[in-house]
Amino acid sequence: MAAGVPTILATTMGFHRGSRRWRPGPIFDFAFELAGKPQRPRVCFIATAGGDQPASVSGFYGALADTDVRASHLALFDMPNVDDIAEHLSAQDVIWVDRGSLVNLIAVWRAHGLSEILRECWQAGVVLAGESAGSLCWHAAGTTDSFGPKVAPADGLGFLPFSNAVHYAHRRTSFHTLIGDGVVPAPGYATDIGAGLYYRGTELVETITDRAGAGAYRVERNADGTVSETALEPRRLR
Hints:
Layout: E1 7-11, E2 15-16, E3 23-24, H1 27-34, E4 42-46, H2 54-63, E5 70-74, H3 85-90, E6 94-97, H4 102-111, H5 114-124, E7 127-131, H6 133-136, E8 139-144, E9 152-155, E10 160-165, H7 168-180, E11 188-191, E12 195-200, E13 203-209, E14 216-221, E15 227-232, E16 235-236
Parallel strand pairs: 1-7, 4-5, 4-6, 6-7, 8-10, 10-11, 13-16
Antiparallel strand pairs: 1-12, 2-3, 8-9, 11-14, 12-13, 14-15
């Protein structure tokens, strides 16, 4: 199964990790729906941004253990855990990218040729999705704390021609400054914790949320260099 058009879910949500065992949030059912509702969806978890920590990989498998999902993961440290990365990823219905360092993620992916592989998957209808760094990575650029506590700009893969900010309550001021100074592309899109962006091709078609009070925003640079922010009405998934 595959999405009818290239599809990306760029979010600040995903697994609920507050208990000893992770639980999948409703964004996963939405991703499976967009992938054509396969009876046993294939999902590959990529945790490069967190250094392929065993605890994250274990949390992923534990969250989906009692479901019909055919779960797998791609690890790149210390070496790839699959023989053919392109073949493995192209066979998925959904690729989920976990949170962590955007800068490290992009550097390692480019070294392993994942930029081209993921673009081919996207164009073939594999749903690309993820949380935090897994949201930022699909955009032209975004705000990151990869270099330390101070928020800084960093490049993504550029599949989407916009900038992106996650954890927006903490990054609103920085994002506005970067947009206003022309450091990152405008318009940009931002999400609070619990919200996400649904793109068909390179068009934002819907914003979504898995909890009350979580918002999404469009941020634009005006001709005089000031910045305008427009709240987008999200749809509650569950």
